[in-house]
Amino acid sequence: MRKCYVHLGKHGDLMILMPGWEREFKETGERPIVMVAEEFADTLEGCSYVLRWRVPLHWYGDCGQARLLAEKEFGKDNVIFPKWWDDPTFTPPRIRQNATQLIIHGKRMAIESGEWFSYMASQWKYAGFGMAHLSDCVNFDVRRKEVERHLRGQIFRSTKPKLLVCLNTGGSSPFPFTPEIEKMLYNFRGQFEIIDLMKVRANRIYDMLGLFDYAAGMLTTDTATLHLASASKIPYVAFIANGGGGSVPRGNCVLAVRYADTMKQEDAIHEEMIKMLNKEPSPPIEIYG
Asked: Which domain-ending residue is among 77, 108, 133?
């Protein structure tokens, strides 16, 4: 009997496991089955190495129902639930004194110090993947080049180097220093064309790779764009949530800054933006309007 990963979403969490699913496909020749909520199933359209099982369930509220459905189809022993904190049947390990504390969806969890240094690592572990490959990059091997080209035409408005910015003040890892970073960015307004990714509406999240591949660099908080960045060669500064709630940057991350250290690292962030300005130009782009 084949196994089934119950992973309803969201975008970033799916991308965390995509390198593991790709490696599994290469090693076994079988596409891993992933149960995913319809709301986020489009993310997996971008990879040929996963077999999507789309379900009309809420990505968090219906996790218990999702598990029962998967166990009925594949058997209890063949169901894998990598996001253990969303699994209503999972009993978290007893919180030890030296454990990194997490609060996810209002529930207090623990990540063992020295073993689970990040929620991302613990999800990877519960998926059954080897830690040696945690930093493998995301691969969207089914990209829509014409859609990407059209998106560039909508978003890029000048021939200046493009600096992509995603300062997410909501979600599970809200960034508290947006005004301070925006003030820093103001000094670069004449040199970069600054693109606010929070305002970009892409039909598929991976269509934004058409922007990433043509940009000089990016600043991103700990959200889906951080995980997407490793599917491109774009140099980026990653603002990482504090403690075990922080992600593990992959790909071409040139500077990782914990949220709490943001203001201490102003000079380093500024220096990386200067380097982005001076990097080798991207291929010519289409400018409309």
From this structure: 133
Q: CATH number for the domain including 208?
A: 3.40.50.2000
* Strand runs labelled E in the chain: 4-6, 33-37, 51-55, 79-80, 100-104, 107-111, 162-166, 193-196, 217-220, 236-240, 253-258
Q: Is the pTM of this model over 0.70?
A: yes
The answer on 253 and 149 residing in a single domain is yes
Picking from 212, 219, 215, 217, the residue whose alpha carbon sits closest to that of residue 181 is 219
Structure tokens at 21: 């699913």
**What domain range is 17 assigned to?**
4-133
Single-letter amino acid code for the residue at 29: G
Specify the residue for token string 């774009």.
234
pLDDT band at 288; cut points 50, 70, 90? very low
User: Which region among 13-27, 79-93, 108-122, 270-284 has the lowest average model confidence (pLDDT)?
Assistant: 108-122
Residue 59 contacts residue 172 (beta carbons within 8 Å): no
Total tally of structural domains belonging to the chain? 2
Indicate if 116 and 209 belong to the same structural domain: no
Q: Cα(250)–Cα(238) distance, rounded to whole angstroms?
A: 10
Q: Note whether 214 and 254 are within 8 A (CB).
A: no
